[in-house]
Amino acid sequence: GVGDFSPLMLGISTIIIFVIFMIGLVIFNKVEKTFMDTV
Questions:
Q1: Which pLDDT value is given to residue 13?
Q2: What is Dmax (Cα atoms) for the chain?
Q3: Is 7 exposed, middle or buried (0-12, 13-18, 19+ CB in 10 A)?
Q4: For residues 25 and 15, what is the distance between their CA atoms, to the nearest angstrom?
Q5: Spans of all domains in the chain
Q6: Which of 6, 5, 9 is nearest to 17 (CA)?
Q7: Nearest 5°: phi and psi at 2?
Q8: Exposure of 22 by Cβ count < 10 A (0-12 exposed, 13-18 middle, 19+ buried)?
Q9: pTM for the model
Q10: Each residue of 1-39: pLDDT tens digit?
């Protein structure tokens, strides 16, 4: 419950956020290239 803090969960959350960020960055770069081509 409240105050139950686990370093493991923090690490997993950080990794998940990092992975999502990297995926978003890759998608953004691909979309940006195709977007610049169409403009």
A1: 95
A2: 52
A3: exposed
A4: 15
A5: 8-38
A6: 9
A7: -75, 135
A8: exposed
A9: 0.62
A10: 567 778 999 999 999 999 999 999 999 998 888 877 777
Q: Which two tokens stand for residue 17?
A: 């956020």
Q: What is the DSSP string of 1-39?
A: -TT---HHHHHHHHHHHHHHHHHHHHHHHHHHHHHHHH-
Cα angle: 33, vertex 36, 37; to 5 degrees: 85
**Joined tokens for residue 33:** 């290239």
Two tokens at 20? 């999502």
